[in-house]
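Sequence only, no structure available. Ideas?
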Amino acid sequence: MKQTIDLRLTVETDVLKVTVVNRSEQDLRLWARDNSWGWSMFSLLLALPGSDEWRELTAKPVCWTANIPHALNLPLGGRLEYDLRCEDPEWNGLDAVEGWLNQSFQVRVRLCIPQTPEAVAQEVFIGEALTPPCLSKPPHSWLTGQGG
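Reply:
I predicted one. Tokens follow.
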């Protein structure tokens, strides 16, 4: 049975809102972001307008005092919302786009859940999805925490 999800992105002043929509033929499960598996499942792709050169930012790892696999149910036709804010998470690779912060740029969010023993045991969706590009205008508070 095919497992399909759509990823949608809304850029707001201080938050990226990622909506995951279940387009498959069955209920799915996705990681919550309160553990290492869910924390690192999103990455950002940034590009200047008109460019096809995308820079990827990945979530910096955090030290978990308790790291327990926790998944959320995504019913057939249902949706889950995830908010990405400044320092939630912090991003590796930010220095590569530091010179872009005073101008508009395109942003996409990638969801990537690899096959791990935990994903199999929790029956979590395994695969990738990518949002269409959205324009982010300065001050990009969702990324920098500045302005807004």
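Residues 117-121 form the longest helix (5 residues).
Hope that gets you unstuck.
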